[in-house]
Each structure stands twice: as structure tokens, then as C-alpha cells.
């Protein structure tokens, strides 16, 4: 026991030393995979703009706006990489308070379509703070769990982490944005698992979630959300109504075959059979135009990206960095699984964006911040290569 105690003290002393910047540790592969996935999103923005009233290369098109968001994302990524991530531990709680305040402001003053309150407008620009909230929640949870390394196998740790994530989750669900609220739950589960919380407590938490399902169905879900979930079970029951999106998405994916119909040649896309084809169902259009092998390419890029994220966490000089990487990986993995799952009809429609590819600046900027923080962890690590 004495040897273990001395080793623990040595590791803690080493981790508390000031971080030195080694740019040779910058993960080029992490950046490359992120850029390639963003390029897929730009290709889809070009395809979705083709033949529309606003041509792809004209100002204001989906494609040109995507280029502007990419430029801004690269700037944000560079700033987050240069910033010493260890300061996030110091300012973890003020950032959490800011996060909750921004979500409250979105609920009180936000605007949207169909009665939602997700966007706040400043000087003509719209901001969706629920996307930024994902990153801030990861930072807060990493701050909390990293200080309880010796008390992880305790119900009080799980209760504390759940209490920490509850306000953002509830505020986002009230906007209403069920998809993002589910992402928060996935982040919590992934970070608890990677932090080493006992499996029995995770199972108990899962049972509690299942037990709360009737309350959520009756009290929190709106009618259109319930209809989405029901149409997932049998989309053919209402093929021209609630089942339309799922059926048209499956047609798009299936008609792509092995190699696809070619860029801008997708009929579901160009003839507008598939709604929200630049956001929720962008993967269906990609599969229609680039086929089965194109879909496999995108999935492979996500797998490689997740591998680099987790590797960066493993190499981190402290537990905080490991947990941030775990939270970021959990967020991206959950969104990919749910988005692709709903496109092919094995998941209900929840409005979760496909990272990097779904058109929209808020999602891309938040992920750029997360990857920038991870690069900050990479260049400030002190662990040997392996």
C-alpha cells in the first residue's frame, strides 16, 4: 500500500507541474479527419444548392455560407489550441454558470420556427447556445469527476454528476430540443463509464432512466415529438404524413446502390422529395449520390477521428484531459449513431445533427472548440509516445 501511495503522489506531482508546449505533439491526423468530414459537408452543401434559386457559388448559398463557417471554425480551433487547457479547470464553475445563463436567455428570448426557442440574434447573427453548451458541459463534468478520483465508485459521485448536467438538459428540453437533451445524457453516461464508475451504478442509472420514460412521455414530450417516435415504429401507417421523411430517406439510401448516382444527380435531392436534406437527412443524400462505398468512407472517417480523440485523452498529462477527450468522443459517437440510425430507419427522428456534415455554423463551431481543446491537451502532454 505504501508503494501505491508513493506512486500516486508522484503522478499527482508530475501532473501538477506547469505544462510545456511541444508543437511536435500536434495531432495532424486529428485535424485531417475533421477537415475531410467538413469537406463532405461542403460537397453536400454544393449539391443541395445546385439547381436552387441561389446557385452554389453565389453569395448567400449553402455552399458559400459553409465556406464562411469553415473559415471561422479554423480560427476558433487555432485559438482553442493555443489556449492552455489547464485554465479550464480553474474557470470550470464560472463557465458552467455562464452556460446555464445562456440557456436561460435562449429560453426567454430565443426565436425559431414552429414555437421553438433555440436561437438568439445579435447584430443580425443567430447563435444557438445549446451547441456550445455541449462543450461547456463536458468541461464542467471533467472538472467535477477529475477531483473525485478516489470516490468514483460512490452513488454520491453519480448523483453529483447527474445534478450537474440536469439544469442544461432540462433547459434545452424545454426549448424544445429533445435531440440535444439526449446528447447531454450520452455525454454523462460516456464520461462516467470512462472515468471508472462501477458498472452496477451505471446499470442502476439505466434502470432509473427506463423507469422515468412514462413521465417523460406524458409530461415533457410534445405531440409532434410523440408522433415522430410512433411513426418510427411503423412509417407506412402514415406514408404521406409523419412517415414521409423516414420512407423517403430509405428510398434515397437504397437507390444509391454501391457507387451512387453521382454528385447533384440524386433524385430525392434535386426533386425535393426529402425534407431537411441539408440538415437532419444529409447522410441520406450523400448515400444516394455516392452509394454504399461513399457511406462506408464517411463512417471510416468517424472511426479514425474517434480513435485520435481517445488517443489524445490517453496521452493526456492529467485526468481532466482524459475526461474531456472521453466526453467529446461520447458526444460525437452518439450523434453519429443516432443520425445515421434515423436516416436508415432504425432510430426515431430526433433532430440530432451529423457532426461536421450537417449544414449549420453552431454545430461546427462547437466541435471546433472541442477539437481545439483536445489539441491543447496534445501539445501540453508530458507522456512518452507509444
Describe this structure in words.
With 386 residues, the protein is mainly alpha-helical. The chain has one domain. Helices cover 68% and strands 2% of the residues. It is built from 15 helices and two strands. It has a two-stranded antiparallel ribbon. The radius of gyration is 21 Å and the shape is globular. It starts with a helix and ends in a 7-residue tail after the last helix.
What does this entry show, briefly?
The chain has 386 residues and is an all-alpha fold.
Report the helical percentage: 55-70%
Beta-strand segment tally: 2
User: Count of DSSP helices?
Assistant: 15
Q: Number of domains in the coordinates?
A: 1
Q: Indicate the proportion of strand residues.
A: under 5%
Query: What number is the mean pLDDT?
Result: 83
Which residues sit in consecutive blocks of at least 5 with pLDDT less than 50? Answer: 1-15
Query: How far apart, in Å, are the first and last alpha carbons?
Result: 28 Å
| Overall morphology | globular
**Largest beta sheet: what is the strand line-up?**
1-2
Would you tell me the structural class of the helices and strands?
mainly alpha
Output the helix-strand order. HHHHHEEHHHHHHHHHH
Oligomer: single chain
Q: Please summarize the sheet with the most strands.
A: 2 strands, antiparallel
Rg measurement, Å: 21 Å
